[in-house]
Amino acid sequence: MYLYLQPKEPPPLPEDARKGEAEPPGSPEKKEKNRKRKGKSSVSAEIVEGFSVFGCSESVSSVRNSSSGEADGSNTHSKEVAMAREIERASILRKKHGIHISGYNVPAPLESFEELSSRYGCKSKLLQNLSGLGFKEPTPIQRKAIPVLLSGRECFACAPTGSGKTLVFLFPILMKIKPRTKDGVKAVILCPMRELAAQTTRECKKLAKGRKFYIKLMTKELSRSGDFEKMHCDILVSTPLRLDFALRKRKLNLSRVEYLVLDESDKLFELGFVEQIDSVVKACSNPSIICSLFSATLPDSVEELARSIMHDAVRVIVGRKNSASELIKQKLVFAGSEKGKLLALRQSFAESLNPPVLLFVQSKERAKELYKELAFDDIKADVIHADLTQQQREDVVDNFRAGKTWVLIATDVISRGMDFKGINCVINYDFPESAAAYIHRIGRSGRAGRTGEAITFYTEEDKPFLRNIANVMAASGCEVPSWIMALPKLKRKKHRPKRDSISTLPEDNEE
Ligand SMILES: Nc1ncnc2c1ncn2[C@@H]1O[C@H](COP(=O)(O)OP(=O)(O)OP(=O)(O)O)[C@@H](O)[C@H]1O
């Protein structure tokens, strides 16, 4: 029985809520929580177009929050003029960057990172760190979702792979929590995979450079033998399994957590993780906690579940929901059979190999098989899958990052969130199991404004599933043959067929 993750029907909104003024719906506790949030409301705000899931209005208007003290209450006319300008400015920015939002009193988007200081009092050290990382302009999701979190609102954010969502949740945490207060964990970031948790911890440390935060990655050792009563930790990054283990066995106290982030939240809400997420959500019992959910793919079912843990959230979508980055040139290649795929791969590498290349297969067995095949070729290849030790997995990732490995063969353990700089090509050697898996896999290239390429092999067996991928391709402007678009639509069934093993050796029954 999951107390927190039971999806609830959206409560009907009172008439004045639709004007952005009513009491938020929910229990007295939630109301209290929302009252606190309202109090935190920041400088400039919009009330915008509503979507069904978070239940809000269809009217479009925008207000300048007078609590900023910028508007002169005695001069109604000039206040109205200023408000109108603000509405227009926010709307132009949103349109320019393809940002869609829903929610009440949504703060206006950032025009520049400098506004973090002028509007939200950001410390200069943090801003220096941003420019030190070469971040000059906020990306569209950063423009909109950072102010949402900074104004104390919960956020449900969907933006393309490689569009800078990590900064969206890290930066407000670093701005808002007090470092080294010694009264426990203040922020928890959950990631579905260990590699991603390690990467997020590293990014967090880079952004926090020069500020004295205790930032910890929940390693296996820590979850099994950490003394959490003595350990200092402001920001904790973990996979659900390790955090749940530490909660149960090591009596980790999360009651003072102010920020809970579910990165790659659609994956986190998949079966297998739900029980662990539920236990974490329960342990984060602070009524003022701010939850935020991020992914490049957020199906409606996840929005439904999100409603059970979020209150008064602002939904921010950049571009089209559940679509691939437009920076990736996508191609489908018919390889006929399993043998045909290996030949096609070798031929493609012989014609042009432009490393780094990431190659996805559907299982660890197949990853090992393909690695054996490519090891005979003159290609610096390596392999990563769940059978490797943690240290081995880290070494593989480091070697690929350092350019020592040209071709990395991988299962879906690194298909989400991993930020390898400048991957030129992603090859789906095995057809992805779903459109979401496809979007995340190919999203390892075409990041941070760079272009990339994605090639997907398919066999006769994969043909019935082509349409799902073709839809994603067409939506991001890639050419798709009309016969594929005419294939019947399949219900969202996962495609993981049993495939012939990867080998060029003749089979027993062949001559
Ligand atoms: N404002 C910015 N300017 C330039 N580069 C940026 C900016 N913000 C983030 N980046 C860089 O863009 C890359 C992708 O960022 P990030 O990993 O946060 O993407 P993401 O949206 O979380 O992707 P995914 O959905 O795959 O997890 C990183 O290398 C990051 O350093």
UniProtKB/TrEMBL annotation:
A motif (Q motif) lies at residues 115-143. InterPro entries: DDX52/Rok1_DEADc, DEAD/DEAH_box_helicase_dom, DEAD_box_RNA_helicase, Helicase_ATP-bd, Helicase_C-like, P-loop_NTPase, RNA_helicase_DEAD_Q_motif. It catalyses: ATP + H2O = ADP + phosphate + H(+). Keywords: ATP-binding, Helicase, Hydrolase, Nucleotide-binding, RNA-binding. Residues 115-143 form the DEAD-box RNA helicase Q domain. Residues 15-32 have a biased composition (Basic and acidic residues). Residues 146-316 form the Helicase ATP-binding domain. Gene3D superfamilies: P-loop containing nucleotide triphosphate hydrolases. SMART domains: DEXDc, HELICc. One of its GO terms (cellular component) is cytosol. It comes from the Eukaryota. Its EC number is 3.6.4.13. GO terms for biological process: maturation of SSU-rRNA. Pfam families: DEAD, Helicase_C. Residues 1-43 are annotated as: Disordered. Residues 344-488 form the Helicase C-terminal domain. Belongs to the DEAD box helicase family. DDX52/ROK1 subfamily. This is RNA helicase.
